[in-house]
Amino acid sequence: AGLGLAKKGSNQTSDTPEDSPDAANPAETSLLMKIIRQGLVESKLDIEIQRKDPNSPLYSVKTFEALHLKPNLLKGVYAMGFNAPSKIQETALPTLLADPPQNMIAQSQSGTGKTAAFVLAMLSRVDSSKNYPQVLCLSPTYELAIQTGEVAAKMAKFCPEIKLKYAVRGEEVPKGTKITDHILIGTPGKMLDWGVKFGMFDLNKIRVFVLDEADVMIDRQGHQDQCIRIHKCLPPTCQMMFFSATYDSAVMVFAEIIVPNPIIIRLLREEESLDNIKQYYVKCKSSEEKYRAICNIYGVITIGQAIIFCHTRKTASWLSEKMSKDGHSVAVLSGELTVEQRIAVLDRFRGGLEKVLITTNVLSRGIDVEQVTLVVNFDMPMDMNKKADCETYLHRIGRTGRFGKAGIAINLIDSPQTMDICLDIEAHFGKKIQLLDIEDAEEIE
Ligand code: ADP
Question: Does residue 443 have a pLDDT over 90?
Answer without folding.
Answer: no
